[in-house]
Every structure is written in C-alpha cells, then in structure tokens.
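User: Can you model how pyridoxal-5'-phosphate sits in this protein?
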Amino acid sequence: MATDPRGKAATLALRRRLLSNSCRLFFPEDPIKIVRGQGQYMYDEQGAEYIDCINNVAHVGHCHPLVVQAAHEQNQVLNTNSRYLHDNIVDYAQRLSETLPEKLCVFYFLNSGSEANDLALRLARQYTGHWDVVVLDHAYHGHLSSLIDISPYKFRDLDGQKEWVHVAPLPDTYRGPYREDHPNPAVAYASEVKRVVSSAQEKGRKIAAFFAESLPSVGGQIIPPAGYFPEVAGHIRRAGGVFVADEIQVGFGRVGKHFWAFQLQGEDFVPDIVTMGKSIGNGHPVACVATTHAVARAFEATGVEYFNTAERKLHFVEHRRPRKECPEVQAPDVFQLGQRTTRGSKAGCHPDRHGRESEKL
Ligand SMILES: Cc1ncc(COP(=O)(O)O)c(C=O)c1O
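Assistant: Here's the modeled complex, given as structure tokens:
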C-alpha cells in the first residue's frame, strides 16, 4: 500500500535544504524513504517490505503494540522530570538491580547514551580525583564534546587526541597483534593497557577511568578474550581509576548468553560503572547509569543535585534475563503499568566471523 502524499524526491529536496549535511542518510546516492515499521520489518513509501538488520534501538521490534500502548497511556497521565516522588523510577531501578551484580546498586536515569557516558565521566572524576581516561582504539562513546574527546573513531577526524586521553589497542584476537593462537591473549592485551597507563603516569598524568564497550561494537564486533576485563580492571584500579562498561549498544541480552555483555568476562567481574541506552527504551530516549555506593556517595558529596526529564518514559519497556537453556532466544518483557506480558522473541542470531551464532547488534 503506497502512503506517500509528498513523494520521495520532494522530501529529499526539503531535507537537503533544511537539514545539515552532517546528518547523513543511509544509502545517500539512492536513499530509501521509510514510512512505517512493524516488528522486524520496515516499509517504504511504495509499500515495499525490508527486513531491518541495522536498526540498533528497536530491541523488541518496531512499534511493539505494548510499548505503543504504554507510551500512549503514560502520555495521558504525566510527563515530568525525576524530582517528584513517583513509583515508576523506583520500580524500574529495582528491576534493573535484579539483573546486575549486587554492588551496582545506585541508578541515575537520563535521556540518551551520550548523557549516560558524560555522567559516568563526571562520576569517575569526582570519585577518583583524577582526570585522565584510557579508551580502546576505534571506540565511540557518544556525541557530546566530552565524549568525542574519548572516541578515537571521531577525534581522529577532528582535533586529534587530547593530552588527557590514552588509547589502548583493541583486544582483537582475530586481526590484532595477539591472536587466538597466543597462549594468553587476555593478559597480553591487558598488559598493553598497563603500558599505556604507565606511560601516562610517567608524564605525571592520573587515570580517572578506563572506558570500553563490553563488546566493542563500533570497533567491529570484537569479542574480548575471557579474562581481559578483570586484568584491565586490576591495572586501572591500581592506578586509582575506575572501570566503566559501556553497555549502550550491547546490553539488555544482545550478546545472547548473558543479559549484560560484561558478564561474558565471568560472573565475578564487576565494573565500577555501567552505562545503558538505546534498547533500554526500544528507541525512546531513555538511558541509565548504574554504579556503586562508594562512587555515588563521592558524587553526592559535591552537594550539586542531579536531575533531568527521563522519568516518565521509564514504564515503557523492561527486559527479562535471557533464558539460560536457550541462550539465543531472548524473552523481552513489555511491562506496562504493573501488568506484565511475556512475549518470547527470537533475537537475530547472526553467525559471527568464526561461524558461531552470536550477538544481535
Ligand atoms: C557504544 C555507544 N556508546 C554511546 C553512544 C551514544 O548514545 P546516544 O546516541 O544515545 O547518545 C552510542 C551511540 O551510537 C554507542 O554506540
């Protein structure tokens, strides 16, 4: 069914006139005009159906009816910020805490992944009293100025690397210097982080944080070797810094076997800060930072309040732990005003480069 009163060429002309060229289109030479999405499908103005393999936010599918209904019902009731007492924010924090290690028990809700990582940076700096950040090569952590600075994927095309940013190699056992045939690639790649930290310290720099996607997705769907994060965390904590796990792209069951990608590194591994976004709101602007009491208390000690407008969206979507017996099948719960409906949905299991079935990213 064609549903396009304006016509693709006219839309394209308007877009070129009114929007910045920095906001790029997919397939710029012949963009597709998408007018509708449902589940795993998208539809263009001619009614042609596309399987959506690239959208990274529609975690339970486009326009999931229960998400749509919950959003509609909440829009009729209240839309405000997090400074009023309300059940949604505490209920959701509680549900999230059930998915995380016990130590990660303080939550901040925000509007975007970038906001979450920016807050993580502030928390890390306040807690440690240090300023510098170690990141992995090719990483992207968001579009705010603070995050462009810690995103080699971006800063290499802009002002370059700031003196407070230190880049460690991606722990890529497929293409990197230490491969699968190395006796201990986890320790070898973690030693690279140690080397980067030591070289920064020799220049008088002090490390506030190590930031990494728990499974570097922007860097190429890299699965860090098991044991890498605990080793890195040891080096970073000895330097007085904290470990920040960016789960914005890969959290909420997207790695298949675990709810959080950092759990691929072993049940005992606990980051100091976890940031969430994208799939948390099924595309609606919601994000979250989880951290420890110690980090949160240090931030509170500044006396500066933290608030934003994220609260009203919190009832939209919840996700349940993937079923252990069938790891490739996620069971997202759409949770609406106290009523839970479970609807199993097959996560897109793409064979990874080794031919294994793995992440949905
Ligand atoms: C790993 C990672 N972190 C942070 C962000 C920033 O999230 P947002 O676009 O919601 O600000 C992104 C966005 O693509 C991302 O992929």
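A couple of observations from the model: The pocket of pyridoxal-5'-phosphate is lined by residues 112-114, 117, 140-143, 213, 218, 246, 248-249, 277 (CB under 6 Å). The longest helix spans residues 185-202.
User: Helpful, thanks.
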